[in-house]
């Protein structure tokens, strides 16, 4: 019974997040080119398929892109951040240089928590449609998340629990969301985003860039790609941590 309800719930969440929009052709500009490792972090219910257009474009621009969608953004934040730190360390080791972290939606929360740890080999942080508070998403999405948290609390594996949101489990993760990263931090957001409250994407620690389009459009549209490419390129000139 729980399994059936859970799969139905996940289908509903995916329907909210995926308006079946096809990636649009985007012209890549030479000035956007760059090198080095990028770790692209997916958010709530994000699949590899969702990240694929952005991953492919950044690869064509010259970056070595690693995607991270483990648990589809539905797991405990504290454990996800610990896991993502291992991925970032491995990408930096393989490339011999610090990583640019790029987080989409809830993935930007995980990325920020990693970037805020000064011991991590991270050179910059870019977030795409990432709310920096628990209530930064639309009401339907919040209700679905609450239902998933109840399922996780009842023992369904791989899901966050009520303790992650309201208890002590993810306290260190929530602290990481408020910490100020010591690396260049750019937050890209859209006022047309109907899943995430755009005001929740603004952070005093970030340089903010407004773009047009929907939440999923942040992964496939031209203007968000331009904002990402320019933010990734700008950090070439910035000091990077050892
Ligand atoms: Zn937790």
Itemize the secondary structure elements and their pairings.
Layout: H1 2-17, E1 37-41, H2 48-60, E2 64-68, H3 77-95, E3 99-104, H4 106-115, E4 122-128, H5 139-153, H6 162-166, H7 171-178, E5 185-189, E6 207-210, H8 217-220, H9 222-234
Parallel strand pairs: 1-2, 1-3, 3-4, 4-5, 5-6
Describe this structure in words.
The protein has 242 residues and is α/β, with parallel strands linked by helices. The chain contains nine helices and six strands. It has a single domain (2-14, 32-234), classed as 3-Layer(aba) Sandwich (Rossmann fold), CATH 3.40.50.1820. It has helices at 2-17, 48-60, 77-95, 106-115, 139-153, 162-166, 171-178, 217-220, 222-234, and strands at 37-41, 64-68, 99-104, 122-128, 185-189, 207-210. It has a six-stranded parallel beta sheet with strand order 2-1-3-4-5-6, sandwiched between helices. The chain is globular. The chain binds zinc ion. Residues 76-78, 160, 164, 169-170 line the site of zinc ion.
